Amino acid sequence: MSGMGYTNAPDGWWKAFIQETPARTAKLGIVRKDGSPHVSPVWITLDGDDIIFMTSRTSLKGKAILRDGRVSICLDDERPPFAFLTIAGTATTSENLDELLEWGTKIGGRYMGEENGAKFGERNAVSGELLVRVKVDRVTAKVDVAG
């Protein structure tokens, strides 16, 4: 990771915030082909410092990432005293079915419970799906926003 933006969060806080349960849905920002912005929800997990999620190759997200790997990700805690995290990074993709199954199972388990993780992994480990790995370039975090 190359940098921290404005932050009042302790070192490593952003990783713990991402991994908290219940899992938060992240908001992914990409740039459409015409240059306009687009934001959509994604389920994520971490692999070290990398953020992992999945999407279809033919979705708006997938097409944008294949064209231009620059992405933004935002997560927030909507409960007082509020907190948020924004990440700028560069995405790479894989269509390896074994990786899709492994990470799809982990992501499904985080969001739908361990007992349903394998079902989610199997459903998404198919041709046409992308495993997206975001190398984090910059993190901006704020805790106790209302404080």
How would you portray this structure in words?
By secondary structure, the protein is an alpha+beta fold. The chain has a single domain, classed as Pnp Oxidase, Chain A (Roll). The protein has four helices and eight strands; from the N terminus they run E-H-E-E-E-E-H-E-E-H-H-E. Strands 1, 2, 3, 4, 5, 6, 7 and 8 form an eight-stranded mixed β-sheet that branches. Strand 2 and strand 3 form a beta hairpin. Helix 3 runs antiparallel to helix 4. The radius of gyration is 15 Å and the shape is globular.
List the helices and strands and how they pair.
Elements: E1 3-7, H1 13-19, E2 26-31, E3 37-42, E4 45-47, E5 50-56, H2 60-67, E6 70-77, E7 83-94, H3 97-112, H4 114-124, E8 129-143
Helix pairs in contact: 3-4
Concise overview:
The chain has four helices and eight strands. It has helices spanning 13-19, 60-67, 97-112, 114-124, and strands spanning 3-7, 26-31, 37-42, 45-47, 50-56, 70-77, 83-94, 129-143. The protein is globular.
